[in-house]
Amino acid sequence: MKKEVVKRYSQAFKQQVVREYESGASVNSLMQKYGIGGHRTVPRWIKKHSLEGIRSEVMIIQSAEDQLEFKAMKKHISELESALAESVLENRMLKSTLDVASKALDVDLKKSFGKKSSPTQQVSKK
Q1: Mean per-residue pLDDT for 69-94?
Q2: What is the Cα gyration radius of the chain?
Q3: Quick one: which of 1, 34, 32 has its CA closest to 16?
Q4: What is the DSSP string of 64-89?
Q5: Distance CA 48, CA 43 (A)
Q6: What is the pLDDT of residues 113-126, one digit of tens each?
Q7: 4 torsion bin: left (phi>0), alpha (psi -120 to 50), beta (else)
Q8: Rounded to an integer, what distance in angstroms lies between the CA atom of residue 26 and that of residue 32?
């Protein structure tokens, strides 16, 4: 005859699991992490030990000045993102123009750009 194992969890352990749930962990991940077998065990602990059984929400309290500063920062971030996007597009356009010019002139402008020609090369070109 085999004895059945009955697990008893301490109050501190239950509260730790509930805190992890409230900080974003899923019920299934907690059950797997701690080897909790009953599918209703963790939800029951959450209902009993947490704030009304739901994840706690973050509430941000700001003064009027903080709100204005936050809006200004959001606007600034938006402007910076727009400037970055414009810069990326301009960079792509310039690279494409360079590629087209290189093909049209049959010269690799990327390699020869910025190189100074020697005096003998200048004479031969004249």
Answers
A1: 96
A2: 33
A3: 34
A4: HHHHHHHHHHHHHHHHHHHHHHHHHH
A5: 9
A6: 665 655 555 555 54
A7: beta
A8: 10
Which runs of consecutive H residues, i.e. helices, occur in the chain? 11-22, 27-34, 41-49, 64-105, 109-112, 119-125
Say how far apart CA 29 and CA 103 lie, in whole Å.
57
Report pLDDT digits (tens) over 37-55. 888 999 898 888 876 545 5
For residue 73, pLDDT over 90 is answered with yes
> For residues 96 and 57, what is the distance between their CA atoms, to the nearest angstrom?
49
What residue ranges do the domains of the chain occupy?
11-49, 64-111
